[in-house]
Amino acid sequence: MSKGILTAVLLLIITKAHAQLGIIKMVGHNTSNYSYGVGAYVKGIFTVSQASDLTLELGANAFFLNDGGSGDGTAVVPLKVGYRYSLNGTGMGLYVEPQIGYNIYGVSSVNVDGYTQNLTFHGLVAAAGTGYLFLLGNTPLDLHLHYETIVDHGGSDNYVSLGLSFYLHFGKRDDVQ
Amino acid sequence: MKQLLVASLSIVLLSSCLKQSIADAMLANERSGTQGSGPDVATMSYAVNGTSVTVSVQDPDGQSPTAYQLGCTKMLYPGTTTTFYSLDCLGSGEMSFAFYTDSLAVGNYSYIANYGDMYFATYNGTAEYVHAPADSLSFNITSYTKGHISGNFSGKLTPVATAGYPTNTYGAPGSVLITKGTFKDVPVFY
Known about the structure:
The complex is a heterodimer of chains A (177) and B (190). Chain A is mostly beta strands. Chain A has one helix at residues 2-13, and strands spanning 16-27, 37-47, 52-64, 73-86, 93-112, 115-121, 124-136, 139-152, 155-169. Chain A has an eight-stranded antiparallel barrel with strand order 1-2-3-4-5-7-8-9.
């Protein structure tokens, strides 16, 4: 019941939503066998001023692993809140966005002594991103670069994502000045 | 603005301090047991038609992964790509159980007669099988922590009267009752 109320409140205050597909790459120690992955997210945006937004993002990322096993790789589903700040104060152009959250579900399928072993985890998520918001005709676009890390069991999965996304307006930025 | 940049850079720097991936860290934790402070003893006990059998192994993590008295190891089913975990206990008798999964986890695992005849135990020199229609053996893993499993088990088996090829001759169906089965801190080898 309380979750339903919370969801309804969030929907009421969210003024925009992103949706995108991007390309991502696992980085860090022992990740050379990972090929490029794919990621998708939906992001709710609550505009708090002309220059800044609070964001709520649910993503799903998959990384493919070439370790001699069959169908090996890592998949994660992070849920994050963030603060997006546009550097020129207009809500468009270059921005920075730190985020923090929780990995709802993660699994790594790895080859262990010739066998595929599935290792499930959750973990704390932290991310730092930058991007450029602009209009192409009347279509608002967001070209962005994110570095994200999930920390659990004394290790971390780190990845970089590059994406071009579009977003849907549910209200005008000027309305919430 | 400066705070945002500091926060973003801090995230990058702090995450890079961790020198292994989550999967590598989890595998390392499993392989090291409790990371140098593993259990002092692993035990399995059960009753065969009311007669107790108990096996205790000191320093269970120190056993050879390929020749242990009480342990569990991942194996490849002959002639297939199917994997399973074999739990084996050698003492005054023998108890074995196969967990048919590619990733061992807490839960209930059962073997019933419909799956076909299968050896599970030896007691007083007699091999005991799941054979008769009402036979079964169930293992319940109640915890799987840092590379060690604990749980309980029970079942009903049929003794072999005469071992022979291609088929055995069996004794009284379902006449071997396995009760009060427990296992604790059994190491899982990879």
